[in-house]
Automatic annotation (TrEMBL):
Gene3D superfamilies: 2,3-Dihydroxybiphenyl 1,2-Dioxygenase, domain 1. Signal peptide: none annotated. InterPro entries: Glyas_Bleomycin-R_OHBP_Dase (IPR029068), Glyas_Fos-R_dOase_dom (IPR004360). It comes from the Bacteria. SUPFAM superfamilies: Glyoxalase/Bleomycin resistance protein/Dihydroxybiphenyl dioxygenase. This is Glyoxalase/fosfomycin resistance/dioxygenase domain-containing protein. Pfam families: Glyoxalase. Residues 12-124 form the Glyoxalase/fosfomycin resistance/dioxygenase domain.
Length: 133
């Protein structure tokens, strides 16, 4: 079996309001690199600074994007976003674990699949670029 190749990990922090959280992160030198609206407010942002990247996603945005994870977001469970070279080795290696985000193609060019790890957190593995068969 081919071993998964992990490339990058980014925490996704579910928050009640992105606008309320931004001043905290901007005060320590993070800047917005991506903003995605959700209704009249922000639903998702990517922040970067000091060689670190993190994502904030509103509870409402999580509930609309992946309804099965809405309660996880409200309970403050962490979401970890991991870029990989290929998804198939990850899917084979984690076949015994519960899938909470079935494989999907996103509008931002990723193919993703998400699992619940034994501690209750959600880990999404994503491949960018040319898609696998």
């Amino acid at each position: 079996m081919k071993k998964p190749v992990l490339r990058k990990s980014t925490p996704v922090l579910p928050v009640p309001s992105i606008e309320a959280s931004l001043p905290f992160w901007e005060a320590v030198g993070f800047t917005r690199t991506v903003e995605v609206p959700h209704g009249e407010s922000l639903g998702f942002v990517i922040l970067a600074g000091h060689g670190i990247e993190l994502m904030l996603q509103s509870h409402a945005s999580v509930a609309e994007d992946v309804p099965a994870l809405a309660e996880d977001a409200r309970q403050g469970r962490a979401f970890l976003y991991v870029e990989v070279a290929e998804l198939e080795p990850v899917e084979q290696a984690l076949s015994a674990y519960p899938v909470v985000l079935p494989r999907r193609q996103t509008f931002y060019g990723a193919t993703e699949v998400g699992y619940r790890e034994p501690g209750g957190h959600v880990v999404t593995f994503a491949r960018f670029g040319e898609q696998e068969g």
